[in-house]
Amino acid sequence: DQQVKQNSPSLSVQEGRISILNCDYTNSMFDYFLWYKKYPAEGPTFLISISSIKDKNEDGRFTVFLNKSAKHLSLHIVPSQPGDSAVYFCAASAYGGTSYGKLTFGQGTILTVHP
Amino acid sequence: DSGVTQTPKHLITATGQRVTLRCSPRSGDLSVYWYQQSLDQGLQFLIHYYNGEERAKGNILERFSAQQFPDLHSELNLSSLELGDSALYFCASSVGQGGQPQHFGDGTRLSIL
């Protein structure tokens, strides 16, 4: 039972254009969402997060949108740069009484930004 | 550099054996999280410790155990190893007790022969 899904295994974008990565979830108990970026042979790097009380959060070139009714979130990268080429993971968590640390990850989307 | 150190980087062993993976969190971080990444399962949460105490547990097998020591480093012990335990094991850390992993190490790749 995959509770967090990233249906696009890969995405290719031209430098300077917008990259939109999508993520769907099924568990209505999730109330905190995160995006991580991962380069080969490295661990994931935290990018941006959003609480379920918001529908948008922005940090520089990165914006995350949350649509709770559709159980959908997306990450927008504008403008895209070749250095953004990596695997992007969507993750979700629900407060477990003591911790939000139990993240459920999607399978990842490989983003390639062409010069 | 995330500041999280995992050792060893690679580990090759045989079925039935026991191994210990080590993690030193980023300086100042009190929380340590362990995740397993296998080819077919993606990143799976194993366990979260805060300042030496267990905070949350995922689908961690009974053959696996972890602890966080007073100096805040953590160890993940895997015993009676099976072929299916071959995976990348990531450690992550964060400052607080209720938050999410912010900084990941580069992982330990465990190969069971």
Low-confidence runs of chain A (pLDDT<50, min 5 residues)? none
What is the residue-mean pLDDT of chain B, rounded to a whole number? Answer: 93
N-to-C SSE series of chain A? EEEEEEEEEEE
The global form of chain A is globular
Oligomer: heterodimer
Low-confidence runs of at least 5 consecutive residues of chain B: none
Cα end-to-end separation of chain B = 31 Å
What is the beta-strand fraction of chain B? over 45%
Largest interface: A-B, 26 and 29 residues
- Which structural class do you get from the secondary structure elements of chain A? mainly beta
Largest sheet of chain B: 7 strands, mixed
**Helical run tally of chain B:** 0
Q: Portion of residues in helices of chain A? A: under 10%
Q: State mean pLDDT of chain A (0 to 100 scale).
A: 93
Percentage beta strand of chain A: over 45%
Order of helices and strands of chain B: EEEEEEEEEEE
Provide structural commentary:
The complex is a heterodimer of chains A (115) and B (113). Chain A has 115 residues and is an all-beta fold. Chain A has strands spanning 4-5, 10-14, 19-25, 32-38, 45-51, 56-59, 62-67, 72-77, 86-93, 104-105, 109-114. Chain A has no helices and eleven strands. Chain A is globular and about 45 Å long. Chain B is mostly beta strands. Chain B contains no helices and eleven strands. Chain B has strands spanning 5-7, 10-13, 19-24, 31-38, 42-50, 53-57, 64-68, 74-78, 87-94, 103-104, 108-112. In chain B, the strands form two sheets. In chain B, strands 2, 4, 5, 6, 9, 10 and 11 form a seven-stranded mixed sheet that branches. The model of chain B has no long low-confidence stretch (mean pLDDT 93). Classes of the chains: A mainly beta (115), B mainly beta (113). The interface between A and B is medium-sized, with 26 and 29 residues.
